[in-house]
Amino acid sequence: MDDRPAVSTDAVWRLPVTVCRITQFLGEPTAGALLERAIACADDTLKPSMIRDREVDPDYRRSRSRGDFAAPELMAAIGEVLEAVEHTLGVSCHNTEPDCSLNVHNDGDFYRSHQDSDMRFAPRRLLTFVYYLHRTPRPFDGGELRMFDAALPLHTGTAGRWQERTWRDWEPEHDSIVFFLPTAWHEVRPVSCPSKRHADSRFAINGWLCSPDPANRGSLSSVGRTAP
């Protein structure tokens, strides 16, 4: 006869989300030059950020974006660390294609909790990265990346209630980058930028490494390590 006590039906299994974070990623002056290019983006080239790549919803996401912002030096540096990131996060990014944009958060901007993977709108995303840029000393407060841990009721297959989730906030430190799986729930905490000047914004290059699209094969440069 087993006299061990039964596990409570209220038990919750909490699973911390793995994040790879690298500081001083590009170093100066490379990071400084990239920041100046971001600041130089004219207002008419920045559009309201969308959700699901096609909808503007200022109650859910408020920021401005530019989808054609080129950062070859960043993509090259990502390629240099990709093997270690793959090993840590348990994902293979061989022969992937990059998809990225410049995102600008100013006073009052935010992005509520969401996932980057969506079987309808973004089924090919394998890895998320966010690279941060801003003037120093930091001219804004807030803007942390909040990563939610999974909270799974032990006796059910559901994802758990939001109030049961724990989290960790990651500072948007200049010249730092974070990598995580697109399935992770995350949000951008509200930004306070008293000057409201564009140059004082929280700048970030958000992107993904995506499995090749058969319809557009060869149209994007590869970032992942080439398989032998």
Automatic annotation (TrEMBL):
- Which InterPro entries does the entry mention? HIF_prolyl_hydroxylases, Oxoglu/Fe-dep_dioxygenase_dom, Pro_4_hyd_alph, Pro_4_hyd_alph_FE2OG_OXY
Q: Where are the transmembrane segments?
A: none
Superkingdom of origin organism? Bacteria
Looking up Gene3D superfamilies in the UniProt record yields: q2cbj1_9rhob like domain (2.60.120.620)
Q: Which cofactor does it need?
A: L-ascorbate
Q: Mind listing the GO molecular function terms for this protein?
A: dioxygenase activity; iron ion binding; L-ascorbic acid binding; oxidoreductase activity, acting on paired donors, with incorporation or reduction of molecular oxygen
- Which segments constitute the Fe2OG dioxygenase domain? 96-211
Q: Per UniProt, which keywords does this protein have?
A: Dioxygenase, Iron, Metal-binding, Oxidoreductase, Vitamin C
Q: Does the keyword DNA-binding apply?
A: no
Q: Among its keywords, does the record have Nucleotide-binding? A: no
Pfam families associated with the record:
2OG-FeII_Oxy_3
Q: Which PANTHER family match?
A: EGL NINE HOMOLOG-RELATED, HIF PROLYL HYDROXYLASE, ISOFORM C
Q: What is this protein called?
A: Oxygenase
Q: Which organism is it from?
A: Kitasatospora acidiphila
Q: What is the lineage of its organism?
A: Bacteria, Bacillati, Actinomycetota, Actinomycetes, Kitasatosporales
